[in-house]
Specification:
223 residues; 7 helices; 6-stranded mixed β-sheet; two-stranded antiparallel sheet; Rossmann fold
Length: 223
């Protein structure tokens, strides 16, 4: 049986901004699933925030994943029947957080992505960029130690994608650890490090000075 990953040894420091790249079938998705505690490594260890999650039971792992990891997907995965604040509250609902605290933290997360002026709106009333901001707020509401993003600008036009990447830049500048799968060299240029996979192994692991474009003014793109 072919192995999706073969002896991958990667250490990501708190506060790093890492791009994961590679061709289709290189192992990117499997690596992200392992980092996100969705898949378990068949051998070896995985330490997340100091704990070996590979040895946790299913229930403990699920709780720990919910508290420590924020996921952002290309397809947004918002619930159309809920308002934006309702969507952001969902992870806290599953953690048993009280309604008043859920609401307070959802508003805090929406303020971080500059969407607190759209309270009460549902996903269908938002642009693509705004929906992705809601998805980012939902990922942030649990106050995670690690943010995982899978091609987060893949469904957005270039200008809107640039504005969303600026949100990630700002979060990283504030100390958030961000790991992003991307195929776009322009996106990876913004990161501090590029891990490139090929046939299930780390082909290169390069640190760099991030190359970030000039900040967009508020009037430059409506998202």
């Amino acid at each position: 049986m072919a192995q999706a990953l073969r002896g991958v040894d990667v250490e990501i420091e708190k506060g790093e901004y890492v791009a994961v790249m590679g061709s289709s079938g290189s192992g990117k998705s499997t690596l992200m699933n392992v980092l996100g505690c969705l898949d378990r490594p068949t051998t070896g260890e995985y330490y997340l925030d100091g704990k070996n999650v590979a040895s946790m039971g299913d229930e403990e792992l699920s709780r720990y994943r919910g508290r420590t990891i924020g996921f952002i997907f290309q397809a947004f995965n918002l619930i159309p029947e809920l308002t934006i604040e309702g969507n952001v509250e969902v992870p806290l609902f599953y953690q048993g957080v009280t309604p008043s605290t859920r609401r307070e933290r959802a508003l805090e997360a929406l303020r971080m992505v500059q969407l607190d002026h759209r309270l009460g709106h549902r996903p269908k009333e938002l642009s693509g960029g705004q929906m992705q901001r809601v998805a980012i707020a939902r990922a942030l509401v649990t106050r995670p130690v690690l943010l995982l993003a899978d091609e987060p600008t893949g469904n957005l036009d270039r200008a809107t994608g640039q504005a969303i990447l600026q949100v990630f830049d700002d979060l990283n500048d504030q100390g958030m650890t961000v790991v992003m799968v991307t195929h776009d060299p322009k996106v990876s240029e913004r990161c501090q490090r590029i891990v490139r996979l090929a046939d299930g192994v780390v082909e290169t692991d390069v640190r760099q000075v991030p190359l970030r474009p000039a900040r967009l003014g508020a009037e430059a793109v409506a998202i």
